[in-house]
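thread: overnight batch results

M.L. [08:02]
morning all. the overnight job finished for the chain we discussed friday. pasting input first so we're all looking at the same thing
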Amino acid sequence: MATKDMSVGKPLKVLYAFAVPMIISVLFQQFYNIADSLIAGNFINDGGDALAAVNAAYPVTVVFIAIGNGFGVGGGVVISRIFGSKNYSRTKTAVRTALINIALFSVIFTIIGILTNKPLLSLMNSQELGESVYAQSVDYLNIYVYGLSFLFIYNVVSSIFQALGNSKTPLFLLIFSTLFNVVIDIIFVKYLDLGVKGLAWGTFVAQGIASVISLMVLLININKLPKENQHVEGEIIDGVREQKHTHRALENSRFSLSTWSSIMLLSLPSILQNSTVSIGQLFVQSLVNSFGNANLVAGYGSAFKINYIIISVFLTISNAMATFTSQNVGAHKIERAKEGLKGGILSMIAIALFSTTIYLALARQLVSVFTSENNKEIIDIGAKFLYILSPFYVVVCIKIIFDGFIRGAGDMAGFTTSTLTDLVLRVGLSYIFVKSLNTGYEGIWWSWPIGWVVGAIVSVTFYLSKRWLKTAQKNL
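M.L. [08:03]
and the structure it wrote out:
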């Protein structure tokens, strides 16, 4: 297995050599998520109901994706820190522990999904969109939840690859899965006339194949890690323990209770944070649905996915920063981690400015690809969403990169506080603007940049307070 020690080499070069495959991967992942909406809007001719149905169900699927990602974060941080310390036997044990953990929780959340998907759609006011939209949303989710085990396992396996410095293998698997998903979706919808159900079955099959292949590749190659271990010890210099590597053998067990505890201690805050954000999005979707306008849901959902393309790129660089920071903390190189952060900030600002320019210039054209009927209302609504949010990408990218750094250093309290601040403001202000100030649905759009600005202030404040440094030194 090709792994990457991120504690050596030029920091920015190492960071982006690792991050670029991840960025390409996440772009394919976003296309994977967007594909259902594109195919629904262009191949199912029912006046936009299918597009509205897929978009109405999307926030529920994001909750489950967030949970899977949360488990991936916990396992990834623990594994990358152990790997960074050159403790290869314990790395293998941590990988096996993470896999056993996610197998168990996959079953639990599949059962939860089966029991809760329909009530969640009802709580989101999906019935206000009409019987056709509501029924198709229920059908889509009923099939989607059966594939949660595939989704969870694939996300955790991808995080393990990345924790070991291997961001290329998940990319190749995702490219295959995405292209296969598009092909099978079109076959199920256009040629077998399965409608929205065909989209769900396509996702089920593609995710299933991708998760099985990725798990097999990981299990086959994990034993290629060196058999010897390097234990870090030495004197303290400038507040950081100097690296002196000596070899010693450790027990290579299949499951470690202490490692499982460490994974869960990091996973639970991430799951809580990710799930809370996603559940917050359910409340926002409920507010959008309450207007009873299927075109509003179609326009908002389409623009939301376009917006999330660039947000996902920011999050991916943030995840790379978390892995980079975690490995360097494990290798006792705090200053190197800070140097990587500085380079990451400058490059993300450049990406943000470029994205803002593109979205402001092409908002209407981007939204229009989701509707074959060239529905003017859908395009107007989606474009307005992008016009309001995109000028604030510079702010949110700063928040997200600092979040990645403090998370990688182990300051989960600071990371969670920053994210929850953004969430609470976004959800709370959405309801205040719409229900109390009668701003219409545009008030929902304006709550986003306000949450981003305050969240960025909180995240940067936590970094400047150096809480993360105390946590990092405590874990050395």
